[in-house]
Design brief:
Layout: H1 6-12, H2 26-55, H3 69-95, H4 107-138, H5 148-179, H6 184-204, E1 251-255, E2 258-262, H7 264-269, E3 273-280, E4 286-295, H8 296-301, E5 311-315, E6 324-327, H9 329-333, E7 338-343, E8 346-347, E9 357-359, E10 372-377
Parallel strand pairs: 1-10
Antiparallel strand pairs: 1-2, 3-4, 4-7, 5-6, 5-10, 7-8, 7-9
Helix pairs in contact: 2-3, 2-5, 2-6, 3-4, 3-6, 4-5
The structure holds ligand MTE and molybdenum atom.
């Protein structure tokens, strides 16, 4: 028996010409690709903006105003990510016959084309990784051991780099694609893509756009929960000891040597403020409500601290992440930054953070710490 030769194997592989090309080609690829590039660009910028919230670097203009900025940027991040899914599928469909292009002859061309192919491989793999981990994160399912946030961020840099290379290399083809008017077959592909984007957006955006709530049957948080507000993690899931929130509960406010210890009744006797504030979860859902409680700046004043101090927040949570957070100075200085006792006029539900929780303007939901038991001035 003779071993098959390379030519025999190659003869079995299709060639780009073997595919029906009547709906593919630059006219479709450049239009779908541009839409995908714009969606990815917005998703990248809003995603990086979100990562900055955790670090709050001094050079970034992150403060309590505008109060709903994070709600908008994170809503856009998740919406553009979801819209990218059908766009990526169509884009891959328009170009995948090119996978079967034969390598060119000549070392130079081989090298250049090889590098370009490599950048596309990185781009496609990165995009698939970002979109699938993003979707799983929305579903709060983490079937992996790595840190979602760190990995999602690192791969976003790699992917956006590959995207820029791809756009630079393909610019002439994109120009050519836009210069031809798509024929009816191609217009059908473009129309179906637009329809798919509209459908996935309408089916999910209600998690942050109030008037779409009834339409968005695929939204992960349907807007229901105690006191009409969704819950991201229950007290039980966070391992909050029911005894610790009863009569034994104390809020410690500490600044250097000075400390006060307050019961929940003590908190309720302090001057109360009510503000309409938003929970804007990094997973894309958001809801605003009327919150009533004590301004954090009034609490730190009890231990003689300046209203513009950074405050470390600790909760009664014993399981999982997000049990602590840090309130930067300009959030503490803002009188709307509350340690809330009530939601929409009734006592905070245990799952919303009873006895008290942080709620501040323009702040990612993950930092709106529930079941607070300690505020410590750190600067
Ligand atoms: N202690 C603690 N606080 C927490 C969390 C948590 O897991 N533990 N989750 C945060 C997240 S991710 C969000 S979106 C909001 C949601 O608040 P809610 O459950 O009252 O809607 O709470 C935040 N506060
Ligand atoms: Mo969240």
């Amino acid at each position: 028996m003779r071993l098959p030769r390379v030519e025999d194997v190659e003869a079995l592989l299709p060639r780009p010409e073997s595919f029906d090309d009547s709906r593919r080609g630059p006219a479709t690829a450049s239009r779908v690709g541009t839409a995908l590039g714009v969606a990815f660009g917005i998703c990248f910028l809003t995603g990086m903006w979100s990562h900055l919230q955790y670090e709050a670097p001094t050079w970034a203009p992150i403060g309590p105003a505008p109060r709903d900025l994070y709600r908008v940027t994170q809503g856009l991040h998740v919406a553009t990510g979801i819209a990218s899914v059908p766009l990526l599928l169509v884009k891959l469909w328009t170009v995948y016959p090119r996978l079967f292009l034969r390598p060119p002859r000549g070392a130079r061309r081989l090298l250049v084309e090889g590098l370009e192919r490599l950048s596309i491989a990185v781009l496609v793999a990165g995009a698939i990784f970002l979109l699938s981990t993003g979707l799983l994160n929305i579903a709060q399912w983490y079937p992996w051991a790595f840190s979602f946030r760190r990995t999602h961020e690192a791969l976003a840099w790699v992917t956006i780099g590959a995207l820029l290379v791809h756009v630079a290399v393909k610019l002439p083809v994109v120009r050519e694609g836009f210069s031809v008017r798509p024929d009816p077959g191609r217009r059908q592909v473009l129309g179906a893509s637009a329809l798919a984007v509209a459908a996935v957006t309408l089916l999910t955006a209600g998690q942050t756009v109030p008037w779409l709530r009834r339409v968005s049957v695929l939204a992960v948080r349907d807007g229901e929960g105690p006191q009409g507000l969704p819950i991201n993690r229950t007290a039980r899931a966070a391992g909050v000891d029911p005894d610790a929130v009863g009569d034994a509960f104390r809020l410690e406010v500490v600044s250097g040597e000075r400390a006060v210890s307050l019961t929940r009744d003590d908190l309720a006797r302090l001057p109360q403020r009510t503000h309409r504030l938003t929970i804007a979860c990094v997973e894309g859902w958001s809801r605003s409500a009327l919150w009533t409680g004590v301004a954090v700046r009034d609490l730190v004043a009890l231990v003689g601290a300046d209203p513009s101090s950074t405050v470390r927040v600790t909760s009664l949570q014993r399981r999982g992440a997000f049990g602590t957070s840090e309130l930067p100075a300009d959030f503490v200085a803002d009188a709307q930054t509350l340690l809330a006792l009530e939601l929409d006029g009734t006592t905070l539900d245990l799952d919303h953070g009873y006895p008290c929780r942080v709620i501040a303007p323009n702040r990612p939901g993950v930092l709106q710490t529930k079941w607070v038991t300690r505020l410590e001035v750190v600067t």
